[in-house]
Design a protein that fits this description.
By secondary structure, the protein is mainly beta. It folds into 2 domains: 466 residues, YVTN repeat-like/Quinoprotein amine dehydrogenase (Methylamine Dehydrogenase, Chain H); 112 residues, Immunoglobulin-like (Sandwich), CATH 2.60.40.420. It contains 8 helices and 44 strands. A hairpin with a 5-residue loop joins strand 21 and strand 22. The termini are far apart. It binds [4Cu:2S] cluster and dinuclear copper ion (CUA). Dinuclear copper ion (CUA) binds next to loops. It is found in: Periplasm. This is Sec-dependent nitrous-oxide reductase.
Length: 623
């Protein structure tokens, strides 16, 4: 039943429109749309028949689940959950040695912003980066396997919060922080906030082997909060921008809300120049990191005044402009890179803040846009024609507008309170248009009730025509902040892990499955295959591991099935451990046999008709 929805956020009846658009297509006769691009009904536009695949992958941040959610677009079917910063028993993530070490003892994270690796400003489909606001980490995922390959604990920082912030050729991933803390996180009184606290931006790189993340250098910024950021493109490729708030340097939240300055700043920096400064030794060593102090080393970093409390900042696909919006002001402001570079060249500053030159608002601003009654602008995406799509958190809508003229072209209500949106190939130099997914914070009455707390919601918007149209909706677990959408054929996954004959822990031949004892260490070189475990090929019972209480046990398990999708699991009853071995993969789990007794072993991943029979015993002789 379609009933009139009341939007708590806006008081506007926009919910009614969205509900009509959504429910109208599924409960009534298929509606023919007037969109020029297609005469299909909305239901037909999002229906991907069995056997066919979606056109795009959407990688959505899982927020405080610490995971990444992978969706197909246009169906909005969830395909995969990839654990990144949190443990995940479904995949054994955090139990096997490699992932346990990567998690570094943390059991959760808050993943906000995924960003694809880029070549010439285009997503290349190779890697995905992500940041953890909760425990100050950054991760890189390999898209050949959809798995996390490395996690870096970023020193000297608290709460890296970046967005789509990879440079054109993935030279750097920049991580500005949401919280300012004393360098090294040591104790300092909040009375000394302005002198002892800093907001640190880290420049992170992927090493030559493309397996490890490293900090190249850091910049000690003023004690403000740094929010969103974006890298330049084409002519602005050497530059990057990030938004700030709390430039008043308030030390309690109440004060931040009460004494809001009229303007905050966008930090504009030239990373090529910072790179040069580091090469010339213009930095100080802080806890082993190369730290640039802008008040001592001039150049490369500038401030641009912007409407108060900006949240997002986004660079247009042509690299000419950056758009920032004061989330407490209705204004969308378009700034010009060319004008900014000109002002920098002329040293045309209005003064300094914390030792950093401030550019004049009027000399960098290109235009201000104020869509009537639109409130709470957060983030902007782009289509193939250079048009911008800005989410309005408070008035619960997406506004389409032209950054070159400031003309507002269309508005569509979403349910409700969108944070980011994600356009097809939206952060590249050549977005596809076609689709935009609005990542809504509040679903309210969209889905079957699940109690007081409701899911978040994603709404798919057809942006191919002049008018936007909401054509699909899906509930989603907490909590997508940002997402990136990539053309599906750019990602080349593998079916089976290749054999690595140099890996001493791998066992590829059944007769080499063995148990070796060194003192109180027991090493099991085992095989998992349809549908049995072989731990010791020479033993009377090949699927039994027998140890003494207190032994230190290493199980190196190789999946010897070389067919795609034949994944095996390995769990021991009551030992609180479960690992996974994907086809061809070798994984190790290490633990102490601290409980004497008889414990069944079983494969947790349904792998064949005889999966239920894929068991064994773990026998622990009492001391
Ligand atoms: S943030 Cu959540 S809506 Cu982390 Cu990009 Cu703007
Ligand atoms: Cu192997 Cu189930």
């Amino acid at each position: 039943m379609v009933k009139k929805a009341v939007t708590a956020a806006s008081g506007l009846a926009v919910g009614f429109l969205a509900a009509t658009v959504f429910f109208g297509n599924f409960s009534g006769p298929a509606k023919t749309t007037t969109t020029a691009a297609s005469a299909k009904s909305n239901a037909e536009k999002v229906y991907v028949p069995f056997g066919q695949k979606d056109e795009y992958y959407l990688f959505a941040s899982g927020g405080h689940s610490g995971q990444l959610f992978v969706y197909g677009v246009p169906s909005l079917r969830q395909i995969r959950t990839i654990p990144v910063f949190s443990t995940d028993s479904a995949t054994g993530y955090g139990w096997d040695e490699e992932t346990k070490k990567m998690l570094g003892g943390y059991t959760w994270g808050d993943l906000h912003h995924p960003a694809f690796s880029e070549t010439n400003g285009d997503y290349d489909g190779k890697y995905l980066f992500a940041t953890d606001v909760a425990n100050s980490r950054a991760a890189v995922l390999d898209l050949k396997t959809f798995t996390t390959k490395d996690i870096l604990q970023v020193p000297n920082t608290s709460g890296p919060h970046c967005a789509a912030f990879v440079t054109q050729n993935t030279e750097y991933l920049f991580l500005p922080t949401r919280f300012s803390v004393p360098l090294g996180s040591k104790y300092e009184s909040l009375d000394d906030y302005s002198t002892k606290y800093r907001g640190v931006m880290s420049a992170v790189t992927l090493d030559k082997e493309k397996t490890k993340l490293n900090v190249a250098y850091q910049v000690a910024l003023p004690p403000w909060s740094y929010d969103l950021s974006d890298a330049g493109k084409k002519e602005s490729a050497d530059w990057a921008v990030m938004t700030t708030y709390n430039t008043e340097e308030a030390t309690t939240n109440l004060e931040i809300n009460a004494s809001q300055a009229d303007r905050d700043y966008i930090v504009l920096f030239n990373w090529k120049e910072l790179e040069k400064m580091v090469k010339e030794g213009k930095y100080e060593d802080v806890g082993g990191q190369k730290m640039i102090f802008p008040e001592k080393q001039k150049g490369g970093i500038y401030l641009v005044p912007v409407a108060k409390s900006p949240h997002g900042v986004d660079v247009t696909p042509d690299g000419k402009y950056f758009i920032a919006s004061g989330k407490l002001a209705p204004a969308l402001t378009v700034f010009s890179f060319e004008k900014a570079m000109e002002a920098v060249k002329k040293q045309d500053f209005s003064g300094e803040r914390n030792g950093i030159p401030v550019l004049k608002y009027e000399s960098v601003m290109e235009r201000e846009v104020n869509p009537q009654n639109a409130l709470g602008p957060l983030h902007t995406q782009f289509d193939d024609k250079g048009m911008a799509y800005t989410t309005m958190f408070i008035s619960s809508e997406v506004v389409k507008w032209n950054p070159k003229t400031g003309e507002v072209l269309d508005r569509v209500p979403v349910q409700y309170s969108p944070g980011h949106s994600s356009a097809a190939e939206g952060d590249t130099v050549a977005p596809d248009g076609k689709y935009l997914v609005s990542l809504n914070k509040i679903a309210k009455d969209s889905y079957l009730s699940v109690g007081p707390s409701h899911p978040e919601s994603m709404q798919l918007i057809d942006i191919a025509g002049k008018k936007m149209e909401v054509i699909q909706s899906a509930p989603v677990n907490p909590e997508p902040h940002y997402a990136q959408m990539i053309k599906a054929d750019k990602i080349k996954t593998i079916n089976v892990y290749p054999k690595d004959e140099n890996n001493p822990l791998a066992t590829y031949k059944q007769d080499q499955a063995r148990i070796e004892r060194k003192g109180n260490e027991v090493h099991v070189y085992g095989i998992a295959m349809r549908s049995k475990f072989i731990f010791d090929s020479k033993a009377k019972r090949q699927d039994v591991i027998e140890v003494n209480e207190g032994d230190h046990v290493f199980i190196h398990l190789t999946n010897n099935d070389r067919d795609e999708d034949i994944t095996h699991g390995f769990a021991i009853n009551k030992y609180n451990l479960n690992i996974e071995v994907q086809p061809g993969q070798t994984n190790t789990v290490e633990f102490t046999a601290d409980k004497a007794g008889t414990f069944p072993i079983y494969c947790t991943n349904f792998c064949s008709a005889l999966h239920q029979e894929m068991t064994g015993y773990f026998l622990v002789k009492p001391k």
